[in-house]
Amino acid sequence: MNDQHIASAFDRDLEEIQAHVMKMGGLVEEAIRQGAKSLKQRDEELAEQVRRGDKQIDAMDTLIQEECARLLALRQPIASDLRTVLTVMRIAANLERVGDYAKNMAKRTSVLVHMQPIDGASGAISRMSKEVQLMLSDVLDAYIRRDEELAQDVRHRDIEVDQMYNALFREFLTFMMEDPRNISSCMHLHFIAKNIERMGDHVTTIADQVIYLVTGELPDEARPKGNAVNYELPTSGV
Amino acid sequence: MNDQHIASAFDRDLEEIQAHVMKMGGLVEEAIRQGAKSLKQRDEELAEQVRRGDKQIDAMDTLIQEECARLLALRQPIASDLRTVLTVMRIAANLERVGDYAKNMAKRTSVLVHMQPIDGASGAISRMSKEVQLMLSDVLDAYIRRDEELAQDVRHRDIEVDQMYNALFREFLTFMMEDPRNISSCMHLHFIAKNIERMGDHVTTIADQVIYLVTGELPDEARPKGNAVNYELPTSGV
Questions:
Q1: Which of A142, B132, B147, B172 has the fewest CB atoms within 10 Å, i.e. is most exposed?
Q2: Minimum distance, in Å, between the CA of residue A150 and any CA atom of chain B
Q3: Domain encompassing residue A131
Q4: Where do the PhoU domain residues begin and end (chains A, B) (predicted)?
């Protein structure tokens, strides 16, 4: 009876935290979308909004980390409940990093609007950020539905983002060699592309965490061998 | 009596984990040192060693995360003990990221050795990485001695690293504009410089965590307002 009571109190608390993770994920998605839009439309004001908006994302991360710490202290979860709480903390930390990269994208947009535009670059960056944003949307779905297959799908799509980045890298090199006046803007655009590629890496890490949550194991490539984690209490004395 | 027993078992477990954090920190310091050396001396074999060595750093992070999770499950710490365990997890995660950046530095070294060297660049990068490596060494000292002042000092030194990066950025732009044949190598060198600057950011985050560990509060600039975390159990019923 008491166990039952504790379990459902834990579930209730966790549900509240998960709602915050989803809200945070929505804010990060929006930051990517608006960050890419501000670059494409050379909209300095929108870029400034994205930069300011990152404070809210950071605050959500702090809130979720606090709530998880409090949940650990209050409910003292073990086994899969403990795993869930630690996973939620990691997912929030990764979302925070993606938000940081979106902020950095907006920062460089504020510089780029004062430079000569590079033909085609903002379109390619826009497609790349669109893909990462969809991956993020899907990984949040996978998280809430505990959908391993969808999480695996997200992991595989990161390869495409890496390929898009590599193609852009070569393109920027060509632009710079063709005309030295392109160098400054290409340096900034290249950073934006790299930041988006890193967002993809963090979304992939979230996908790894979702897989871990569902199966109890990280994907093979995500971690060195011997990573089976035992959160159970031993049957013998402590 | 029983409380006493539990407390000292916790301390013993924690000490073991902290020894692993220090070992991991030592590996990361060495990765920065050797990564910078491989770049300066154009030593492809050493770069390859640094790349391979990152697996061990990742494995240490996994080990520490597991040990902390097990400690949470077994000892069910609350209040400042819980804070300590969560802080250790964050410190290890940040060390892992610094190790990743050292690996990336070594990766690009392997490409750069086949290109025309850029005068003066590797010296500047070497000084920058030396500074970050010293910051890391100091922050690990600050962690083990619970030395808030030293942690604050590390935070302030990150400003110098940022300034070094900014100076290098301008230098690379000049090199590229002077001679388009410098563009490829400058793009790679610029990334290395940016990676070292990011290492500095992660070391600063570790310093924040040390300050949090000692004082119970994050430095003002590190976090949005309202971040006082309450890990105590409430006096009223759960």
A1: B147
A2: 25
A3: 2-222
A4: 22-109, 125-210
